[in-house]
Amino acid sequence: MSRPENENPQERLEKTARELRKHRPRPSEALAARIERLAERRTARRAHSTRLQLSRRRLVLALAAALAIAVAGAIVHGELQSSSSSKPVASEAATNPKTILGIVTHGKSSLKRVKSAPSASTSSFDPYAARQTSSGSAARLQTLKALPPTAAARSSRDLTGSGTTSTRSPNPLANIPLTKRLADLRAVLTLKVENRARLSSATAKAMKIASSFGGFIASADYQAPGRGVASSTLKFKVPATRAQAALRRISTLGEILSQKVSLEDVQRTVAVEADQIKTLEQQIADLERSLSDSSLTSSARSQLQVQLANARANLHSLHAQRSANVRRGRLATITLTLTTGDLPKLPAAPSRIHKAIDRAWDGLSSEISWAAIGLIVASPFLLLAAVLALALRYRRRREERRLLEK
Amino acid sequence: MTVAAVEKRPDFAQAARDHLDAVHAYVAYLVGNRSVAEDLTATAFEKALRNWTRFDPRRASARTWLCAIARSVALDHFRSEDRRRRREDAYALRQEFEIAEPGFGDGLSPELESALASLTAGEREVIALRVLLEWDAETVARFLGISRSACSMRLSRALEKLSERVASDVEA
Is the CB of B145 less than 8 angstroms away from the CB of A397? Predict the structure, then answer.
């Protein structure tokens, strides 16, 4: 290959390229035959590979179906949960002897009756549950069902008697069934007043009403910030027998936004405590009599003395407990909140389908959150794996470069 | 892979027939030895046959895919050769087998043949892809995992070097 002296470098490169293309290496016949044999082998195996492709497709379809089933399962689960949670409260109340009457209203027109356990606080009140118990004409208290055994049953009978008359009353506060039995009456009332001036005067009036009914203020909290809603919260104790009248008077101080009245019979508890006290007093008398016997051994005497001390301590605590219960039964607790603002609106009760969707979504969200937790836990390892993969890739590239530079 | 992609995939036999020349030429330039190139090309096609179901025509042409397999086979060969050399260096038994049958094409001038042999595998590779197989710069850059400008620079340097070697051989 000869090169003229005055040849242009570009031309020279092109000439070289042309020569390279022209004398490009060709595969030998042996190699061509070998590849041909390979190709024939491939043709024979084609049917198998088609099957393989189809099975891969099936795998993708199976995964999609599994995902769809998971979502459908979550929806069905949600639907089942929603139907089980919407059992009538009344039936639940019938099986729960501790259930005592509670009256809750929210807004002016809807009066609801819900069960409330004696120890349950007002914050545990579920407005949806309350709505489920109310009938179409929600503004009326429904007929009270007699609650099972013992005092609860007696108390509810009493309450029912009073309640039936009160169903006709437009004022739910008139529904409070009062008897001479000891009962722990708790009322929570939220009233709206027009402005701050009215708030101040209404607070003062409420205090006067409480004292006029022979009650007293247990706590008071008046909040009137520079801007926004002002409110005052008062907690009264009034004699239970006059609680209904007091509530009626108090409710005239403003527009009723919400009210909750719960009544727990404590007569039975007090009676039981009285019986226990009597028994203990009898025991103490017996023990004292035994101790007066001079023929007692010193160990028997000391044993009896211990028993006597215990019985006296028990008697003392029972007296205190009984007094507290009697006080609880004689004094009703009224918690009044006066506010210049409105209560936040309760969301509309969701339909069965909505609830099912909500629960399905909750299920899916929890799955997602678990997946996220898994991801968080695995992330250091994933990061490490990614770093390792990058390092290996870099190393491979470097090695390739080194090999190709030889 | 979708059914459409499977349907679009060419027949292996046809692809092998169509691209054997190109793959062989590429491997021959890469390893610089015709008999080794033949073996490696055959190995590459066997590997391609085994993995033909994985070939997705939407991602690359059959020729590019076959060349990528051939490259990986050639790199494996380089690695094993490297290990062999190191092992033999350790025992001082090294023998030169590689350039026993140099061959970049029948009819190439001895100067060009020797100039090509003096280039590195990487330089010969870029010449094979750009000049022999006439791939565009973009495809080659993607294939080699480098930028387009790096690819062009590598080609121009390789050709320059080749040209210089040829010229010096002629002068000699």
Answer: yes
Task: Count A/B contacts: CB-CB distance under 8 Å.
Answer: 135
pLDDT confidence of residue A104: 47
Per the CB < 8 A criterion, the answer to whether A54 and B6 are in contact is no
What rounded mean pLDDT belongs to chain B?
Answer: 82
Is the ipTM beyond the 0.90 threshold?
Answer: no
Q: Quick one: tokens of B141?
A: 């850059």
Of the candidates A285, A25, A69, A305, the residue with the CA atom closest to the CA atom of residue B105: A25
From residue A264, give the alpha-carbon distance in Å to each of A111, A291, A328, A354, B126.
Answer: 19, 43, 10, 36, 93
User: For residue A304, what is the enclosing H or E element?
Assistant: helix A298-330
Segments in A86-103 forming alpha helices (H): 89-95
The number of helix segments (H) and strand segments (E) in chain B equals 8, 0
Give residue A54's identity as a one-letter amino acid code.
Answer: L
Choose among B28, B112, B120: nearest Cβ to A405. B120
* Architecture of the CATH domain B107-172: Orthogonal Bundle (1.10)
What's the pTM value of the predicted model, to 2 decimals?
Answer: 0.47
* Nearest neighbour of B132 by CB, restricted to A13, A20, A49: A20
| CA distance linking residue A55 with residue B1, whole number of Å | 12
Length of chain B: 172
pLDDT digits (tens, 9 = 90+) for B48-80: 988 888 888 888 888 899 999 999 999 999 888
Give the tokens for residue A10: 């570009």
Of the candidates B38, B78, B145, the beta carbon closest to that of A27 is on: B38
C-alpha–C-alpha distance, residues A23 and B110, integer Å: 12
Distance between CA A111 and CA A260 in Å, rounded?
A: 10
Nearest CA in chain B to A12: B163
Judge whether A138 and A111 are in contact, CB under 8 Å: yes
Tokens encoding A61: 């379809």
Q: How far does CA A374 lie from the centroid of its chain? A: 25
Task: Give the pLDDT mean for A184-199.
Answer: 87
pLDDT exceeds 50 at position A180: yes
Mean pLDDT over all residues of chain A?
A: 73
Q: In chain B, where does the domain assigned CATH 1.10.10.10 lie?
A: 107-172
pLDDT of amino acid B44: 92
Instruction: Return left, alpha or beta for A221; rule: phi > 0 is left, psi -120 to 50 is alpha, else beta.
Output: beta
- Mean of pLDDT values over B99-105: 60
Domain B1-103 has CATH 1.10.1740.10: yes
